[in-house]
């Protein structure tokens, strides 16, 4: 990830290989999203870049969307414990305090993660940037009993928020 955000002009000068190399990890382990977004280049502005990523996900077949959702790690889950989170996921989770939980909080997250996955077949996904542990837990508890199709749509919306946040960090508005 570059130290200084790229300009939209720099993004528009990229070929597909450079674009995917720069943004292939924006959507958790799913470079196909960046490849699909690149098809909408050149981008008029930052908002158009974000919209291209959102459109790539929205227009993907259900199976591709499901695979994308399943690539996301559990919040405060096994990947976090093992230290194998993608760098941006790590920063987002630690920024929300998920690396500093009490034993009770960790047990609650584990139980909610397991219950959510069993009911919905996907991990609980929330753009946690700017959230507190309490806000995340409240959202988790509110959403765990939703119908699976509602959660599928909500998870895709949250992935869109995550992508927007990540692009804000990489490309100047």
TrEMBL record:
It catalyses: 5-hydroxy-2-oxo-4-ureido-2,5-dihydro-1H-imidazole-5-carboxylate + H(+) = (S)-allantoin + CO2. InterPro entries: OHCU_decarboxylase, OHCU_decarboxylase-1, OHCU_decarboxylase_sf. One of its GO terms (molecular function) is 2-oxo-4-hydroxy-4-carboxy-5-ureidoimidazoline decarboxylase activity. Its EC number is 4.1.1.97. Keywords: Decarboxylase, Lyase, Purine metabolism. The keyword Lyase applies. Transmembrane segments: none annotated. Pathway: Purine metabolism; urate degradation; (S)-allantoin from urate: step 3/3. SUPFAM superfamilies: UraD-Like. Residues 12-168 form the Oxo-4-hydroxy-4-carboxy-5-ureidoimidazoline decarboxylase domain. PANTHER family: 2-OXO-4-HYDROXY-4-CARBOXY-5-UREIDOIMIDAZOLINE DECARBOXYLASE-RELATED. This is 2-oxo-4-hydroxy-4-carboxy-5-ureidoimidazoline decarboxylase.
